[in-house]
Amino acid sequence: MGKIIVDTNVLVDVLQKDPVWFDWSLEQMALRSTTDELCINPIVYAELAQRYNSREQLDRVVATLQLGWLELDRDTLYLASQAFGIYRKRAGSKTNVLADFLIGAQALHHGFRLLTRDVSSYQTYFPGVVLISPAVN
Questions:
Q1: What is the CA radius of gyration of the chain?
Q2: Contact yes or no for 61/52 (Cβ under 8 A)
Q3: How far is CA 43 from the centre of its chain?
Q4: Where are the domains positioned within the chain?
Q5: CA 128, CA 131: separation in Å to the nearest integer?
Q6: Domain 2-132 falls in which CATH fold?
Q7: Which of 75, 74, 76, 81 minimizes the C-alpha distance to 96?
Q8: CA distances from residue 34 to 1, 3, 17, 22, 44 in whole angstroms, order as listed
Q9: How far apart are CA 76 and CA 30, in angstroms?
Q10: Which tens digits make up the pLDDT trace of 58-93?
């Protein structure tokens, strides 16, 4: 059983029943969970947190969705920083390490697949990551 990082946008599609993406996101999560462990990391958790009134409420949602937990290690953080440096050299306008860089670095470093609808930065800065996305699949 492999691990798949579920990007925040897919989770929000499901949790908010997005009129455009709900069906695709829910179907992918259901399908992929039969063969792999669906996981989040602290970045995805933090992005979801703003939608809930308490940590306990968010933790119940994470448990209900049966999402595993992935910590960020120093190798991942270093790789994210290096990719972000390339982004900045290419005249990227953001000045802090973006969430996508941390998520992409973790997927690349550990060989995890990534379930997302946002492919551009992952394809550009982490081309070795296997993406599960409507734009790719």
A1: 15
A2: yes
A3: 8
A4: 2-132
A5: 9
A6: Rossmann fold (3.40.50)
A7: 81
A8: 9, 11, 22, 19, 22
A9: 28
A10: 999 999 999 999 999 999 999 999 999 999 889 877
Q: Under a CB-based contact definition with an 8 Å cutoff, are residues 114 and 5 in contact?
A: yes
Burial of 51 (0-12, 13-18, 19+ CB in 10 A): middle
Using CB atoms within 10 Å of the CB of residue 13, give its burial: 0 to 12 exposed, 13 to 18 middle, 19+ buried.
Answer: buried
Tokens describing residue 90: 């290419």
Three-state SS for 55?
Answer: helix
Distance CA 26, CA 98 (A): 26
What is the C-alpha end-to-end distance of the chain, expressed in Å? 20
What pTM does this model have?
Answer: 0.93
Is 9 exposed, middle or buried (CB count within 10 Å of its CB: 0-12, 13-18, 19+)? Answer: middle
> Given this model, what pLDDT does residue 30 score?
98
What are 63's two structure tokens? 């448990």
Instruction: Read off the tokens for 46.
Output: 């933090």
Q: Which band of pLDDT confidence, cut at 50, 70 and 90, is reported for residue 96?
A: low
What does DSSP assign to residue 15?
Answer: H
Q: Considering all CA atoms of the chain, what is the largest pairwise distance in Å, rounded to the nearest integer?
A: 42
